Amino acid sequence: MKVYNIEEQVNKIKKLSTYNVADITDIDELSAKAVILEHKKTKARIFALLTDDNNKVFTIGFRTPSKDSTGVAHILEHSVLCGSKKFPAKDPFVELVKGSLNTFLNAITYPDKTVYPIASCNDKDFDNLMEVYLDAVFYPNVYNEPKIFMQEGWHYELVDDKGSPDKNGEVILNGVVYNEMKGAFSSADSVLERSITKTLFEGHSYGEESGGDPDIIPTLTYENFLDMHSKYYHPSNSYIYLYGDMDMANKLDRIDREYLSKFEYKFVDSKIEEVKPLEKMKERNFEYPITESQNEENATYLSWNTLVGGELDPTVYMGFQILEYVLIDAPGAPLMQALIDAGIGEDVYGGYANGISVPYFGVTAKNSNLDRKSEFLAVIDGTLRKLADEGLDKEAIKAAINVFEFRAREADYGSYPKGLMYGLSSFDSWLYDADPTMHLRFENIFKTLRDEVEKGYFEDLIEKYLLDNKNTAIVTMTPKKGLTTKKDNELKEKLADFRARLSKEELRKIYDDTVALKKYQSEPSSEEALLKIPLLSRDDISTEVKMPKFEEDSVKVCKKNIKVVHSKVFTAGINYMKFIFNIDFANEEEIKYLALLKEILGYIDTKKETYASLATNVNLNSGGVSYSLEAYATNANPIDFTFGFCVNSKILYGKEPWLYSIVAEVLTTSKLEDKKRIKDIIAEVLAGKDRLVSSGHMTALTRAGSYISKELLFNDLTKGIEYLKFLESIDLEKDFDKLYEKLSELSKKTFNINNLLIHTICDDKGYKHTFDGIEDFANSLEKSDVPDKKSSLTTEIKNEGFETSSMVNYVARFGNFVNHGFKYTGVLRVFKVLLSYDYLWNNIRVKGGAYGCSAVFSRSGNAGFVSFRDPNVANTNKIYEGIVDYAKNFTAGDREMTKSVIGAISEMDIPLTPAREGMKGLSAYYSKVRHEDMQKEREEVLNTSEADIRSLAPLLEAVLSDKLICAVGNEDLIEKDKKLFKEVKHLFKD
Q1: Is 480 exposed, middle or buried (CB count within 10 Å of its CB: 0-12, 13-18, 19+)?
Q2: Locate the Peptidase M16C associated domain: which residues (predicted)?
Q3: Do 591 and 714 meet the contact criterion of CB atoms below 8 Å apart?
Q4: C-alpha to C-alpha distances, 381 to 17, 242, 462, 612, 916, nearest whole angstrom
């Protein structure tokens, strides 16, 4: 295996004549060499991180301060990926998603920058992605095709009630970003965030909405849109980041030769203007929408926010993140607890808002009342003064530092490549003309903070930045019934009035533009244009499946054999231990109580510790201990599942005895009789119920699936709509004795040694210590026999429409093909790519204006289709009904099929962190899916033909014949299409 020679790469970079090397340094924490360069001709800024990581990353970013709230930067971010000089196809981005081995592919708009990141483990693929992105940002087709702006930004349409062009129809507004931001502005938490920045940064670009305010987006002209690109999208205003084990000199030479050298230096005035201090504290009130059925009492947001800075001081920057955890986020955090104890709000959140040139620190109490504002401010001020004077809990600070250092060293960002996250972090200083490595060198930062704990450093942060700071905004946000309906009606009236004032010629133009846009959206890119997009071949893909590795074992304790699954993975000294207690005995009611128990454990006192000291203990000794309810497919049976109550932990080798002790304490001695604490926990969970709308696509898909799938019914019972309704139904004053009895009974039934399986992810060195200290833990568990019983979940077809104050919708269809006698095939993976990025994409997103859409197919036979931030309901359902014909009449050449096969393999071969690789081993253990099953699936994917796609038509017809539908969204739009549902109801309780 060839080792990446970093020094050799550095020497090659030094020889490049078109760049100046500004600095070369080691970043020991990342095992990387940082090279900072400047392109001689254009002064483009380059930051290269050379390291032995084959998940390579490229990002090009531009400083793009917002002058208004038209969302021009956001619309441009979408639009430049809709065709370019070298790659004139209408949607190269989608073509790349369908046909590359990317591990990340996206674009992101921030308040002061726009970035275009890609990642891939395949060098040829990486080059292809990089070239398409560079061409997109520097030579986009937006100058030649105004319809791109109309489609991605906004436009008028003259249509009938089914969305078809109609000369006599009504005028409506549509556009992908327009609808995306209507969805964003439907979340009360998002509206509050925008209200805070609008108040704190009034008159500054940070006070504008870079994503676009739906009320203001339609004022953006095509000319101003183009001006934004011509001004800011120039190499002289660019920031180019490269990471990984690539031939860095070769990549830099290519970037210069193909792109940067074609430009002359240009002065771009993009500097982020200085944030002016506020002369005095500012107070403003805003409104947010709720439905007519929701209660306005106890629904006000109270928010205190103050400018603190620290972006270019890495110690302050990290110090404030730690202070946020200590003051607000940790269980029992003093500022959060003081507000909760005072009865001011049911949830308290906030903290350090960074990623801009002047970060701010805020505290928000949710579900409060306006008349509590003075008390809210007094509690914050009094608590902070007391903490500054008397001192913070030093052990709590050390624990918080440990949490952040553990995260930094683990570098586990889930599905996001760590190289990508390092790059995004570098922008937090680089964009403001400072060292891009500043926040990546965490070793000395954590050492300094640890050394300063006893010297009052964190108390000084409170004293210096949070107390008596005039740069403060007090923002309150009060609920307004029917505000969404009112705004919708006002918009309809405005558009009707606009239509009435149009001349025949102007109406004709809107109609002609509508027809022309629909035609443009319906016509595929030419074969010639598609052929210009670089594509790997099937030969570039490994034919061998990579199976997750695990070993079955057992450990004998208390005369009982506990099953053990060991995922043998190198984890750099971290043991990921998971205790899985089987809960197949539970009925639907018990599952909901177990879901509540999961919320309670770790956040309530035990016999030995308060929940605050418990959290400190956990954070001082581990990377975290958490609780979850999970479903696992079992025994190679696609519709058979086992359910588990899981304790999840991350510890360093040697900490196993501590872990067994703390888990035993939490599981067996938590004070479930603490009525007040449980009431606070339930209120806090309910206060976060807006996530069901902000993630409405998952809410709708899970609910639709729950009508027929026991797996998804379990998910709905534990974190979906059914769980919400369960929590809303609890009356602690009347029912606490029953609740306590249920939780106690279920704790004994669940935390039984006969229910237990232990999963560990570590290497052989770590495995030697895995069972150190297990005896006391095992002794603490119940020992009684467990009945051999499978969960008796009963599904029911409901087909519901859930009305909310959202301005957009999330529409899901669901079915199961195994129930109709069909079997899972790898061909479905390829079809998912085609469906998500061809049929659904073109009809729901491109033509329909929704922000997103997707499809899912699983081995269990579950199949679903869902839209995201969608202006339609019935029209989207009609598109779902057309899926069968799409498959039945599918035709494609070899290139299109190859592209979709590569896209499917890309999803299968995503690089995994050690923890995720280990979890795949656990899933393989439960499912009993064999190597030959996985190899067969991979071969089915690799050999998929257009005939195979057509052969899916009967399977898809069976899925849609189940006629399962659920929608979450705008109450007027769902009401309008209520004939689709058996029942229409409000999502949230009155």
Answers
A1: middle
A2: 477-730
A3: yes
A4: 58, 45, 10, 21, 43
3-state secondary structure of 591: helix
Bridge partners of residue 366, in order along the sequence? 347
List of E strands, 589-679 = 624-634, 637-652
Q: Residue 150 is encoded by which pair of tokens? A: 């109309």
Out of 472-481, 619-628, 651-660, 908-917, which region has the weakest mean confidence (pLDDT)? 908-917
Residue 32 identity: A
Cα–Cα dist 733/333, whole Å: 26
Please give the Cα distance from 502 to 612 (Å, whole number): 65
Degrees to nearest 5, angle at CA 355 with 69 and 272: 60
The residues that bridge with 855 in the sheet, in sequence order, are 865
Measured between alpha carbons, how far is residue 177 from residues 66, 524, 526, 870 in Å? 16, 22, 26, 11
The pLDDT tens digits of the residues spanning 630-652 come to: 999 876 565 678 999 999 999 99
Task: Give the relative orientation of helices 894-908 and 931-942 as an angle to the nearest 10 degrees.
Answer: 150
Q: Which residues pair with 115 in a beta bridge?
A: 61, 108
Give the model confidence (pLDDT) of 55-75 as tens digits: 999 999 999 999 999 999 999
What's the CA gap between 89 and 71, in Å, rounded?
25
pLDDT in tens, 863-907: 999 999 999 999 999 999 999 999 999 999 999 999 999 999 999
Tokens found for residue 493: 């009236």
The β-bridge relationship of strands 756-762 and 560-568 is: parallel
Confidence label for 791 from pLDDT (cuts 50, 70 and 90): low
pLDDT tens digits along 337-386: 999 999 999 999 999 999 999 999 999 999 999 999 999 999 999 999 99
Report how far residue 900's alpha carbon sits from residue 541's, in angstroms, rounded to the nearest whole number. 13
CA distance readout (Å), 353 to 304, 321, 434, 957: 13, 9, 19, 49
Give the 3-state secondary structure percentages of the chain, helix then strand then coil, rounded to 5: 50, 20, 30
The amino acid occupying position 330 is: A
Q: Output DSSP code: residue 367.
A: E
DSSP codes joined into one string, 893-947: -HHHHHHHHHHHHHHHT----HHHHHHHHHHHHHH---HHHHHHHHHHHHT--HH
pLDDT at 379: 98
Query: Which ranges of 584-632 does DSSP label H, i.e. alpha helix?
Result: 588-600, 611-621
Q: What pLDDT was estimated at residue 19?
A: 98
Residue 822 structure tokens: 């069909």
Helix 442-452 vs helix 314-324: crossing angle, to nearest 10 = 60
pLDDT band (50, 70, 90) for residue 851: very high
Mean pLDDT computed over every residue of the chain: 95
Helix (H, G, I), strand (E, B) or coil at 205: helix
Give the whole-angstrom CA distance, residue 100 versus residue 95: 8
Phi, psi of 105 (to 5 degrees): -155, 110
* Other C-beta atoms lying within 10 Å of the C-beta of residue 454: 11
Query: DSSP letter at 184?
Result: H
Strands 800-804 and 964-970: parallel
> Could you tell me if 231 and 168 are in contact, meaning their C-beta atoms sit under 8 angstroms apart?
no
In order of 222, 403, 446, 536, the CA distances from 399 in angstroms are 53, 6, 12, 48
What is the predicted pLDDT for the residue at 248?
97
Helix or strand or coil: residue 952? coil
Domains (range + CATH), the chain: 6-173+199-273+523-531 (3.30.830.10), 282-479 (3.30.830.10), 556-780 (3.30.830.10), 800-986 (3.30.830.10)
- Report the alpha-carbon distance of residue 632 to residue 566 in Å, rounded: 17
Mean pLDDT of 848-874: 95
Cβ contacts of 889 within 8 Å, gap of 6 or more? 950
The span from the CA of 902 to the CA of 946, in Å, is 15
**φ and ψ at 634, to 5 degrees?**
-130, 150
